[in-house]
Amino acid sequence: MRITEIKSFLLSKPRDLHIVKIETDEGIYGIGEAGCSTREHGQDGVLRHLRAFLLGMDPMQVEHIWQVCYRSAYYEGGRVITGVMAAIDIALYDIIGKKLGVPVYQLLGGACRDKIFGFVTVGGLNDSHCQDRVRAAVDERWPAIRFSPADSIVPRALRVDPTLKDTTNVFDVRESMAATAELYTDIWQTTDKRVALGIDYHHRFSVAEAAQFCQMIPRGSLSFLEEPIRNENPEAYATLRTMTDVPFAIGEEWPSKWAALPYIERGLTNFARVDICCIGGLTEAKKVAGWCEAHYIDVMPHNPIGPVCTAATIHYAAAINNFNWVEMVPAFNEGASDVFPEMPKRQGTHYPLPVRPGLGVEFDEDAALKYPMTFYEHPHLQRPDGSYTNW
Ligand SMILES: [Mg+2]
Predict the structure, then answer these.
(1) If you measure from the C-alpha of residue 15 to the centroid of ligand 1, how many angstroms do you get, rounded to a whole number?
(2) In this predicted structure, what is the pLDDT of residue 166?
(3) Which residues pair with 16 in a beta bridge?
(4) What are residue 12's phi and psi, to 5 degrees?
(5) Going from the N-terminus, what domains does the chain have, and what CATH number goes with each?
(6) 3-class secondary-structure state, position 121
């Protein structure tokens, strides 16, 4: 079998997505998704470089193709490159699954479980309906609930139109810490203690702020604090680790096994937030899961984009033993059913084991062309003094 064409689709349905389709001389196609969101045009350019040598290669050689894509440029790696490599890798697994007539998880070692549970994100702790959403989530028997911090951020996206530039979205860290700690404590006190609770702080703290926030919430109440600080520097996390015993969920931005290495080997992450569409695909994600297994760390995959990412993540979660919950954003998947007429079907709090050969996702090219990409840009936040801080 040979790769005959690689197509790139930049679309917005319901959010910006970069979908890659690989065609073969046997009429089988595979579908993949690239995960460096908001920098999709950069990914598209990388794909043009890779396409030049991928055409004609055997799509069954997944590991070999991964090595060539990663190492052929003098400047190895980087999130934009590994995002594209992820799309290629996922598409190759889709092709091989279809060729052999088996779901992708069978190619990864077979199923370790019957169903893949998710965690639900109920929004900001200061949202007026937060308490109601938590009660509903507990009633629906979600095993884990994640909150966004309480703050005054308006989740407005920028577009490339400069007249829409947002210069008023202020993140006041002291205000957020105080409100989040108080509201979280209230909710925790009345919530079924069997449900795991987490907060995603989206790397908006300094080390000192993160340590203090952890000391402001009841000891033992928080199952995980997700990304309290930025993750470029594991030494900073090592320092923070000495200042709190709250478990951390880190890893959604890892662009390779090498980025994950210090976090796993030094016990800096307790829940590995592997993002298959960022880290370089199923090939790399499976290696990282094995590394986590050796350190008794569970994988809690990041899954924030489209149905192809979700499908790949479900197959991955099925085939690794050290998994707890997958991130679920149903609106992003179920809102794109015309572009993806076939995709994994959620059943309440879980996905059942896929049954179709390959990923189990069908892609309608003509439908995709109806939704050109809209140049989404995450909100640009500022501190009260006007300096930039992370969204
Ligand atoms: Mg996160």
Answers:
(1) 17
(2) 55
(3) 12
(4) -130, 100
(5) 3-103 (3.30.390.10), 106-357 (3.20.20.120)
(6) strand
Question: What are the tens digits of pLDDT across the range 137-188?
Answer: 999 999 999 999 997 666 556 655 555 555 568 899 999 999 999 999 999 9
Q: What is the spatial distance between Cα 355 and Cα 104, in angstroms, rounded to a whole number? A: 9
Specify the amino acid at residue 113. Answer: R
Alpha carbon distance 26, 250 (integer Å): 41
Spell out which residues have Cβ within 5 A of ligand 1, the ion. 200, 226
Q: How far is the CA of 134 from the centre of ligand 1 (A)?
A: 19
269-326 pLDDT tens trace? 999 999 999 999 999 999 999 999 999 999 999 999 999 999 999 999 999 999 999 9
Q: How far apart are CA 241 and CA 219, in angstroms?
A: 15
Q: How far apart are CA 231 and CA 273, in angstroms?
A: 12
Distance CA 22, CA 85 (A): 12
The pLDDT of residue 163 is 53
Tell me the CA–centroid distance for residue 223 and ligand 1, in Å: 15
Closest to 82 in 3D by CA, of 244, 286, 291, 281: 281
